[in-house]
Design goal:
Aspartate Aminotransferase, domain 2, four-stranded mixed sheet, 14 helices, 15 strands, binds pyridoxal-5'-phosphate
Length: 437
């Protein structure tokens, strides 16, 4: 389907509208969706809705589909495992695929010492467990997090997340011993490490800090990239004060930046890494990777859960890893990243409303502002661009503390032709939205 045909899409179509009516009745509005289009099938970087509309997917299910939708190998592994067994509970009768996946992740992770891996279900659960591990290992309580951070929606993860609405508003009381420092934002703020040190020292006794948890590139926060020097200083600082450095790679990991983990670009070795999203092509799976000496502090049975490391999800994850390696998806992330960067840079030159374009590899975003000089966030324009894109057949995700960023979370397998078609739609949408708002 070419761009012209996509202009004729009827979104949402009548079948989607019918489902949506029932949804209004039976699904609470706190469970929201970015569109009223209901998926029927998906393949590669395209989703077909129940009315037969084909959409280019630049969200990859919030960054879960690095290898694309319904990859043949992943689907085959899922079906094979489902025929063998769907669940025994690893804590009752274990299975090899958990161990195989742990081995592969441990060997890939840039930890300072040989690593081990514990599997969980969601990103938030990985974060909760990373905090438990750091506290137990250090016998300390305080956790340092950053402005603009998103770490999930469970109690501790929600506390660590920054944005009040909709993630925290009315959901208190929050967990204690969480302290926040400013995330270094090269576009908007001071990135000096001294500022971080001052902010932390003003809030908490350094000998009480168990962990500093940072997204090397913020996800929900708008793809702000922590400068390498900042991450390197953070590593030294954590060592000096005896705290664990935790890299939340749930969004930035698994190849999106052109390396398996975003911290590798800065040559920083975190003590603990959380992994999720693209790890298992959308099946619920996450991981905490940490040095063996760190895990050694925890008693047998201290961590776990009924569904953690589900065998179908483990098989899918093993296939995702093989696909990334076999199909050279790290190089491909860099390649498609270059195409997107070039287009975004050109668009920034043409539109006063695009203040910043940033990111690493294929993890790229553009930030909308009222003018380049004021840098005042322009969330209304961003919302309009996302809506215009959808009407033209492109699903794209927003981000940013001020909701003024669009981010690229497309499958790394996206063919060039489709990528260019999606970028054309995005550019057209910026053009139309810019004229309208
Ligand atoms: C960096 C980061 N950490 C944690 C999470 C929470 O993951 P989940 O939604 O799987 O709980 C997310 C989700 O977007 C994330 O981007």
């Amino acid at each position: 389907m070419n761009a012209k045909a996509r202009n004729l899409l009827r979104i949402p179509g009548s079948k989607s509208r019918q489902i949506d009516q029932r949804r209004q009745e039976f699904v609470p509005r706190c469970i929201s969706s970015g569109s009223a289009v209901y998926a029927a099938t998906a393949s590669g970087s395209e989703i077909t809705d129940v009315d037969g509309n084909r959409l280019i997917d630049f969200t990859g299910g919030w960054g879960c589909m690095a290898v694309g939708h319904t990859s043949l190998e992943v689907v085959a592994a899922i079906c094979d495992q489902a025929r063998n067994f769907t669940h025994t509970d690893f804590s009752v009768v274990p299975y090899a695929s958990y161990v195989d996946l742990a081995e592969r992740l441990a060997l890939l992770a840039p930890c300072p010492e040989p690593a081990q891996v514990a599997l969980f279900n969601s990103g938030a659960e990985a974060i909760e467990n990373a905090v438990k591990i750091a506290r137990k290992h250090t016998d300390r309580r305080a956790i340092i997090v950053f402005s603009g951070a998103f770490h999930g929606r469970t109690h501790m993860a929600m506390t660590m997340t920054h944005q009040e609405s909709p993630y925290k508003s009315g959901f208190g009381p929050f967990a204690s011993e969480v302290y926040r420092a400013s995330y270094p934002n090269p576009y908007r703020s001071d990135c000096r490490f001294q500022r971080f040190e001052d902010e932390v020292a003003a809030q908490v006794e350094l000998s009480e800090v168990a962990a500093i948890v940072i997204e090397p590139i913020q996800g929900e926060g708008g793809f702000t990239v922590a400068p390498s020097e900042f991450l390197q200083s953070l590593r030294r600082y954590a060592d000096q004060i005896g705290a664990m450095l935790v890299a939340d790679e749930i969004q930035s990991g698994f190849g999106r930046t052109g390396k398996f983990f975003a911290v590798e670009h800065s040559k920083v070795s975190p003590d603990i890494i959380t992994v999720g999203k693209s790890i298992a092509a959308g099946l619920p799976l996450s991981a905490v990777v940490a040095s063996r000496s760190v895990f050694a502090s925890l008693d047998s049975g201290a961590l776990g859960g009924t569904y953690v490391g589900n065998p179908i999800a483990c098989r899918a994850a093993l296939e995702v890893l093989s696909t990334i390696e076999r199909d050279g998806l790290l190089d491909r992330a860099s390649h498609i990243g270059r195409i997107i960067s070039k287009r975004f840079a050109r668009m920034r030159g043409s539109y006063e409303c695009i203040g910043d374009v940033r990111g690493v590899g294929a993890m790229l975003a553009m930030e909308f502002v009222r003018s380049k000089s004021s840098k005042e966030p322009y969330p209304e324009l961003c919302a309009k661009v996302i809506a215009e894109s959808l009407a033209r057949g492109l699903v794209i995700a927003g981000a940013g503390y001020d909701k003024n960023v669009v981010r690229m979370l497309l499958p790394l397998t996206t063919p060039e032709e489709l990528l260019l078609e999606g970028l054309d739609i995005l550019e057209k949408s910026v053009d139309v939205a810019h004229g309208d708002v």
